[in-house]
C-alpha cells in the first residue's frame, strides 16, 4: 500500500474493505471521512483535481449499488 499519511491510509483500508462487500452505507461513510480529511489539510490544485475524480468514482459506485438494490 502506498503511504499517504496515517489519516488517508486509514481511509484507504476502509475503502479496500468496502470493495470486498460493496455497500452504499459504507461508501457514504468513507465520503464523509474524505470530506473531513480534505478540510483538515492543504492540498495543491493538482491533488484537489485528483481527489475530485476519486470522489466522483466513489459516488458513481454508490449510485450503482443503490440502483441494484432498488431493482432486487
Short description:
The chain is an all-alpha fold. The protein contains three helices and no strands.
Characterization of this structure:
The chain is mainly alpha-helical. The chain has one domain. Helices cover 82% and strands 0% of the residues. It has helices at 6-20, 24-40, 45-71. α1 runs antiparallel to α2 and α2 (24-40) packs antiparallel against α3 (45-71). The longest helix has 27 residues, at 45-71. The radius of gyration is 13 Å and the shape is globular. The chain starts with 5 loop residues before the first helix and ends with a helix. The mean pLDDT is 80.
Q: From the alpha-carbon coordinates, what is the Rg to the nearest angstrom?
A: 13 Å
Report the oligomer.
single chain
What ranges have pLDDT less than 50 throughout 5 or more consecutive residues? Answer: none
The arrangement of helices and strands along the chain is HHH
Coarse morphology:
globular
Summarize the amount of helix as a percent range: over 70%
Distance between the termini: 35 Å
Derived from helix and strand composition plus strand pairing, the structural class reads mainly alpha
**Number of spatially distinct domains:** 1
Percent in strands: under 5%
Number of strand elements: 0
| Main sheet properties | none
Number of helices: 3
Amino acid at each position: 500500500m502506498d503511504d499517504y499519511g496515517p489519516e488517508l491510509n486509514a481511509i484507504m483500508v476502509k475503502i479496500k474493505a468496502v470493495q470486498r462487500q460493496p455497500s452504499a452505507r459504507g461508501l457514504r461513510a468513507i465520503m464523509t471521512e474524505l470530506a473531513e480529511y480534505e478540510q483538515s489539510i492543504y492540498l495543491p490544485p493538482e491533488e484537489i483535481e485528483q481527489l475530485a475524480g476519486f470522489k466522483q468514482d466513489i459516488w458513481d459506485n454508490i449510485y450503482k449499488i443503490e440502483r441494484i438494490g432498488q431493482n432486487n
